[in-house]
Write a structure and sequence with these properties.
single chain; 308 residues; alpha+beta; 6-stranded mixed sheet; 12 helices; globular
């Protein structure tokens, strides 16, 4: 039986940003629109000011992927990727170990979400911007990061897409004035998440030490504090927001430049998903069930092809 979903046409919203999507062998995204982050997001991400993004993406262009979009447009559930390549389902940078790493040798995965970083790539080959806290005392530029295999979560429903292989170029950290100019949603989102998440512990520790000592803690003082079992949750979101507002904590940033595309990796995901579909459709259990499937239909508002 032919899956009816396979006859669905490409969403018109894709054509708004793609030039000649059928005939060209490259993904022709309008670079100016990518840089201005005009893609409609499916998560409640907090956007940085346009001038902030533009200033840090100067000279970083779209990487033209030499493969047809029938390959690059496919999207997946993260569970499928984890089954094949390993890694947990929550970490931005999951560690791959044991038999999985021995089998494929890939340990460069990065899984950004739009909630914290709404300017990461959402179209394969597009440039992007990654930011985070926890780089230590105030710094003008972030520390270098190794090349990563970037797989972006595009929707809250858990739809992920492989974007390509990316270099991370340290760019100017946000200045105090730039941070103060951001929308309140940006500032509030980061303050709340730094307070609640495990990865915010270092930042909470620095803020707690500054309050206790009345000065910036030394590296040794911070290291000693982090050896304790405290989670430093006594540091409130308001105190975190104040530290960022004053420039005591730094939002470090990297420009993301696509430098390649692992077609074999993408094909392996497509092939594994096809096996799951074949198994599911041959089973009398649930023809329309999405249980344990590699992907699921996307809403028409998303800007990528549905993977069926």
């Amino acid at each position: 039986m032919v899956d009816r979903r396979s006859r669905q046409k490409r969403s018109p919203s894709v054509k708004e940003y793609m030039e000649d999507p059928v005939k060209t062998e490259f993904t022709k995204v309008r670079v100016k629109d990518v840089k201005k982050s005009k893609f409609k997001k499916d998560e409640d991400g907090a956007f940085l000011a346009e001038e902030t993004v533009q200033a840090r993406l100067q000279g970083i262009n779209l990487y033209e992927i030499p493969f047809d979009r029938t390959l690059t447009d496919h999207v997946f559930k993260r569970r499928l990727i984890s089954i094949i390549y390993g890694g947990n389902l929550r970490s931005n940078f999951p560690k791959i170990g044991g038999s999985k790493l021995a089998a494929h040798g890939l340990n460069d995965f990065m899984y950004p979400t739009l909630l914290y970083n709404p300017h990461v790539p959402q179209v394969p080959g597009a440039p992007g911007l990654w930011c985070t806290v926890g780089q230590g005392e105030h710094i003008e530029r972030a520390q270098p990061l190794p090349r990563k295999r970037v797989v972006t979560r595009l929707t809250k429903a858990g739809i992920w897409q492989y974007q390509g292989q990316y270099d991370f170029i340290p760019v100017d950290s946000l200045t105090k004035e730039e941070w103060q100019a951001q929308h309140p949603q940006v500032r509030n989102t980061w303050a709340q998440q730094i307070h609640s998440k495990k990865w915010g512990r270092d930042t909470r520790a620095r803020i707690a030490l500054r309050k206790r000592l009345g000065r910036v803690p030394t590296h040794n003082e911070l290291s000693t504090e982090l050896e304790t079992k405290s989670d430093f949750k006594e540091v409130t979101p308001a105190q975190i927001a104040e530290s960022l507002w004053k420039g005591e904590e730094t939002m470090a940033m990297w420009a993301m430049k696509c430098v390649g595309y692992d077609a074999d990796f993408q094909r392996s995901l497509i092939e594994e998903h096809a096996k799951k579909i074949a198994t599911r459709t041959s089973s009398p259990r649930s023809e329309n069930s999405n249980e344990d499937s590699g992907t699921q239909p996307l809403r028409r508002s998303t800007r990528i092809q549905k993977h069926v």
